[in-house]
C-alpha cells in the first residue's frame, strides 16, 4: 500500500526558500503522477504543481508559482521534491503531496483523481 509522507515545511521570511519532500513507501512511484496541493486558512485546497510518471516526467505549475517553484523526482529515493523560492505570505498554507497511478500527463486541476495523500506539512511565510 502506497504511503506518502511530506516534510520540509516551516517558518520562513518573505523572499526565502524551502524545499518540501514527499517520500513514498510501499510502492515505487515510477508509474505515478504526483501532485502538490496547498490549503490556506479559510480557502479551498488548490493545485500548485505536478509531475508526470517517470516515463514522461512532464511538469505543470499554477500561474501563481510559475518561475518560483520547481518540482522534481529522485527515483532512487522514491521521493518527490518541491523547491520553493521567493516565497511570500500568499504561499502560506498546508502543503500536501498526492499520487495517482497514471502514465499520462499529470493534471494539476484534477484533484479528485489523486487517491493517495500525505498528511501535509505547514509552510508559514512571515517576517
Tell me what the structure shows.
This protein has 127 residues and is mainly β. The chain has no helices and 11 strands. The strands form 2 sheets. Strands 2, 4, 5, 6, 9, 10 and 11 form a 7-stranded mixed β-sheet that branches. Strands 1-3-8-7 form a 4-stranded antiparallel β-sheet, with no helix packed on it. Strand 7 and strand 8 form a beta hairpin. The termini are far apart.
Which features characterize this protein?
mainly beta, 11 strands, globular, seven-stranded mixed beta sheet, four-stranded antiparallel beta sheet, 127 residues, single chain
Instruction: Write down the Rg.
Output: 13 Å
End-to-end C-alpha gap: 40 Å
Which structural class is indicated by helix and strand composition?
Answer: mainly beta
Amount of helix = under 10%
The whole-number mean of residue pLDDT values reads: 95
Total of helices? 0
The main sheet comes to: 7 strands, mixed
Order of helices and strands: EEEEEEEEEEE
Stretches where pLDDT falls below 50 for ≥5 residues?
none
**Total number of β-strand segments?**
11
- Overall 3D geometry? globular
Strand content: over 45%
Amino acid at each position: 500500500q502506497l504511503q506518502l509522507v511530506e516534510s520540509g515545511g516551516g517558518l520562513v521570511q518573505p523572499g526565502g526558500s524551502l524545499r518540501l519532500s514527499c517520500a513514498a513507501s510501499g510502492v515505487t512511484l515510477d508509474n505515478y503522477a504526483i501532485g502538490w496541493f496547498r490549503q490556506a486558512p479559510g480557502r479551498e485546497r488548490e493545485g500548485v504543481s505536478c509531475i508526470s510518471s517517470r516515463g514522461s516526467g512532464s511538469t505543470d505549475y499554477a500561474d501563481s508559482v510559475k518561475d518560483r517553484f520547481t518540482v522534481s523526482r529522485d527515483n532512487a529515493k522514491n521521493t518527490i521534491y518541491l523547491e520553493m523560492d521567493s516565497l511570500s505570505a500568499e504561499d502560506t498554507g498546508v502543503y500536501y503531496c498526492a499520487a495517482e497511478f497514471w502514465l499520462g500527463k499529470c493534471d494539476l486541476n484534477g484533484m479528485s483523481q489523486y487517491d493517495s495523500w500525505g498528511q501535509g506539512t505547514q509552510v508559514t511565510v512571515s517576517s
